[in-house]
Amino acid sequence: SVATIQRKKQLSLFQTMNGSLSISNGTSSLAGQCHRDTRIAHVVFPVLYGILFLAGFLLNSLALLAFFQIRTTSSFHVYLKNILLSDFVMTLMLPLKILTDSELGLWQLKAFVCRFSAVIFYETMYISIVLLGLISLDRFLKIVRPFGKFWLHNVTSAKILSGSVWFFFFALSLPNMILSNREATRLSVRKCASLKNQLGLKWHEAVNYICQLIFWTVLILMLLFYIIIAKKIYSSYVKTQTRECKIKQRAKSKVFIIVAVFFICFGPFHFTRVPYTLSQIGKNIDCSMQNQLYIAKESTLWLATANICMDPLIYIFLCRQFVEKAFCVKSRKSRYTTQENQTIALDTGIST
């Protein structure tokens, strides 16, 4: 009957409000809902993100100044500069996230974050993931086939490939902005999904699956690359024990910093994201488990964001020109370093 339908609508509205509202201390909620201590989200994480923003802005500004002085002479330089751009854009999104998470900004700002800056934040994260995968492929070919010529090593090809990555994720993210077209209110902005229309929700779900697939594909390929690289380095080390060989192997082993940064930053977030998503759509999930997964998801997201501070390690370990420009150490390079440069320039994964 009409009365029954109206009653269901009212109940649905009440449940929506019930899931969105919380008392300011974050320890209470309306009856029937899982209690969540939001003080962690509103106090602890904004402080942690503030630290990341200050460190990330300083490090990436320094990196920008250094890379402006470096000519793009290799595919490796192209990928590094694109990662730097991606990290810098993500860094600029953090102040908005800090203001909205801490509830210091106006609710209209939260609507802007939901529709635009949060989308850009995740877009740049996955751009960095794919670019780290391309760097791994580039270093893999350099070490396993040092004298081989591949189109991927061409600067123009690397620029086209990097541009394609940016275009792909922009095209993937743009509908998330356009389809978040429902009216924003003080209540609805508490949950970004409330701003999306029906098609927007479906698109958002599809994008989540695509991004998960991209991460796991890149991770598996990187593991294969570095297993082969490790075998190559070990076999070369066993065959000869000359000082020159040790220099080469030490230089080659530095490429493992890439997979270390990738796994530390992005691995935990994606490992946690699957059970967290299932907890959101599942029924009869234990309340304490929901809270634990929420804290795990937020903590690992912070760790993924810390990538903006970790990527400079890749520049330092693998790009000698960056170290020279950023820290002005060229004049202090010793004769030993000069000899090492000459030895490893052609057959290692280190950029000179």
TrEMBL record:
Domain of life: Eukaryota
Tagged with keyword Metal-binding: no
Topological category with respect to the lipid bilayer: Multi-pass membrane protein
Keywords assigned by UniProt, alphabetized: Cell membrane, Disulfide bond, G-protein coupled receptor, Glycoprotein, Membrane, Receptor, Transducer, Transmembrane, Transmembrane helix
UniProt KW Cytoplasm keyword: no
Example GO molecular function: G protein-coupled purinergic nucleotide receptor activity
Domain G-protein coupled receptors family 1 profile: 59-315
Membrane spanning residue stretches: 47-67, 119-137, 158-178, 206-230, 251-271, 301-323
Cellular localisation: Cell membrane
InterPro entries found in the cross-reference section: GPCR_Rhodpsn (IPR000276), GPCR_Rhodpsn_7TM (IPR017452), P2Y13_rcpt (IPR008109)
GO cellular component, one term: endoplasmic reticulum
Stored PROSITE patterns: G_PROTEIN_RECEP_F1_1, G_PROTEIN_RECEP_F1_2
Family of the protein in this entry: Belongs to the G-protein coupled receptor 1 family.
Protein's UniProt name: Purinergic receptor P2Y13
